């Protein structure tokens, strides 16, 4: 039996309100999970801060374009953004053979891309391996970018804009990578490290 007239309109309105409330709760949950302020999410999504605030408080019914922008900024699908917080946890596994690999010009350094491809524009993670004598030269990333290098084995020398620092096993070195930088293994043993690059870090004064 179909529902027509005012009853149908009431059902549609009730459904829209419920969906909007669910959306607002999910947007707020994801925003806080990424430790983003309303202003930061506004900058990343192109959606006005006031609109995001209204969505989170269930005070507006956003357009599909607005939902898409928020989903993209929060690294979620539109469907995921409209799902409740009680859904099953996200699990994704990549086989070793499917892990992308980058090799330095001299062939002595390798970067296994272990970060999520969906975050590559703002967050990158690598497993770094350097043979003795290996050199990895990198161009400057966007302004404010920061790299974190945690060494597990060996010893590396990092040079940023002419300034050099040595990092040994068990140590972590963080440095601005928004200028040319070089990583060298000048030792006699291989070096292994985990490298994380934050491409949208706040500019350091």
Please provide a written account of the structure.
By secondary structure, the protein is α+β, with helices and mostly antiparallel strands. It has 2 domains: 5-82, 434 Repressor (Amino-terminal Domain) (Orthogonal Bundle), CATH 1.10.260.40; 96-198, Sandwich (Jelly Rolls), CATH 2.60.120. Helix content is 29%, strand content 28%. The chain has 5 helices and 10 strands. The protein has helices spanning 5-33, 38-45, 49-56, 64-73, 78-82, and strands at 101-103, 109-113, 123-130, 135-138, 146-153, 155-160, 163-168, 172-176, 181-184, 191-198. A 6-stranded antiparallel beta sheet has the order 1-2-3-10-5-8, with no helix packed on it. Strands 4-9-6-7 form a 4-stranded antiparallel beta sheet, with no helix packed on it. Strand 1 and strand 2 form a beta hairpin. Helix 1 packs across helix 3 (49-56). The radius of gyration is 23 Å and the shape is elongated. The chain starts with a helix and ends in a 7-residue tail after the last strand. Residues 1-5 and 14-18 have low confidence and may be disordered.
């Amino acid at each position: 039996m179909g529902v027509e007239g005012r009853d149908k309109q009431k059902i549609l309105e009730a459904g829209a309100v419920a969906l909007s409330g669910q959306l607002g709760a999910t947007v707020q949950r994801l925003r806080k999970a990424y430790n983003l302020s309303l202003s930061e999410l506004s900058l990343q999504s192109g959606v006005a801060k006031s609109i995001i605030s209204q969505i989170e408080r269930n005070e507006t019914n956003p357009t599909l374009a607005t939902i898409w922008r928020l989903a993209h900024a929060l690294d979620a699908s539109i469907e995921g953004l409209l799902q409740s917080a009680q859904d099953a946890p996200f699990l994704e596994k990549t086989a070793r053979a499917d892990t992308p690999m980058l090799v330095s010009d001299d062939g002595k350094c390798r970067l296994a891309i272990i970060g999520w491809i969906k975050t590559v524009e703002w967050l990158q993670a690598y497993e770094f391996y350097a043979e003795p004598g290996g050199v990895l030269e990198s161009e400057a990333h966007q302004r404010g970018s920061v790299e974190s290098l945690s060494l597990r084995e060996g010893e590396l020398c990092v040079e940023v804009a002419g300034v050099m620092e040595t990092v040994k096993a068990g140590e972590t070195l963080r440095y601005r990578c928004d200028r040319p930088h070089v990583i060298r293994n000048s030792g006699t043993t291989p070096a292994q490290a985990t490298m994380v690059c934050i491409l949208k870090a706040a500019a350091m004064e």
